[in-house]
UniProtKB/TrEMBL annotation:
Cellular component annotations (GO), alphabetically ordered: plasma membrane
Protein's UniProt keywords contain Metal-binding: no
GO molecular function ontology, one term from the record: transmembrane transporter activity
Every Major facilitator superfamily (MFS) profile domain range: 12-393
Pfam families named among the record's database cross-references: MFS_1
Membrane association type: Multi-pass membrane protein
Protein name as catalogued: Major facilitator superfamily MFS_1
Amino acid sequence: MHLFRFSLDDRNLFLISIGVFIAQIAFSSITPFLPSLLIELGLKSNISFWSSLIFSVQSVVFGIMAPVWGAISDRYGKKPMMARAGLGMGVVYFLLAASKNHIQLLLLRALNGALSGYIPASISLVASTSRPDRLNQNLGMVNTASAVGAITGPMIGGLTAKVFGMRGSLAFSGFLLIIAGSLPYVTRIKEPPRSQKAEGSIKDSIIETFKNRQLTLVFMTGLFTQAALMAILPTLNLVMRNIAPQNAEFYTGLVFSIIGVSTAIASPFIGRMTDIPLTSLYRWSLIGSSILTALQGLAASVTSLLILRFIFGFFNAAMTISGNVLIAKAGGSGSQGSSFGVYNGIMSIGLVFGSILGGIMGDRFGLAFSFFASTALFLAAYLISFLIKEPTEEEPGV
């Protein structure tokens, strides 16, 4: 009953988490149905190729723009960035609903990537408004909201697509994003005064972020972990076709979503583990993720894979929360926008790199080697993590 103890400041946290939940529903509702949308638009060949391209282009453009938006948020605030991302993407989703062909869809997804950044802005706002003793717990709640939204999104997307069609589903997602973008101002979410540290140019802010050795080390681990998470994506459906050919699509969706379930369950508890050194929690999550991923590559049944993926979600929660707290504490109170912006840009690079690596390994050496490549990437992140120093309460991170 005392998992969350709300104070006046928790109103901020609750409202931001609601926004993240709504936005994540919109983000995750379209991705599983991209191939169907392409077919509806009249594409008759290379559907898998165009699905991958349209999925990837958003991440690539977001990776380029994320550091820029992060630096701007240090100057003008996180609330304007949440509104800009939510309202801007909401309009793009309405345009997606009106797209006529796959080329328009590709260009609009690129524009969506350029305007993205709602959740990074939300995380940096929570980090900048949290007391040091509540930072882990508060970021844990945001992570729970994101995970629950990611689970709910495909279900709502499927339901709205069935009732209103694919275009109606996209328009509904656009409506959700407009709600999320309006929420910071409609509900009067508080934001702390901006620091004078953010007075320099955007370019200087990004350069200064990379000069921070502790941040750079966390960025490197983030690159490897995101690549590791994505490395199994190209082959997972093929693995399911081998071990459960009759219901491959259903089990693929279940295997994906079950991580979200355990991540949502674990995040509040992970956020309260303040007695464990932050770097130790981070390292344990990385080595645990590595071991569990290797075991997934050896799984011979749907049941064993589901169990392993469920357990993996607990380590995923610890990895995400401890990584975000490390960035918040290493970045400093006046440059958290730049810190999280650069981090999310690097994560986007990891997303594309991991998907390509996993596909190559699976094609060349066998499907299990996508999992083994993921294992190696987690191990690389684990080794780098030993160079990260434990942050102190005196550091100006929050």
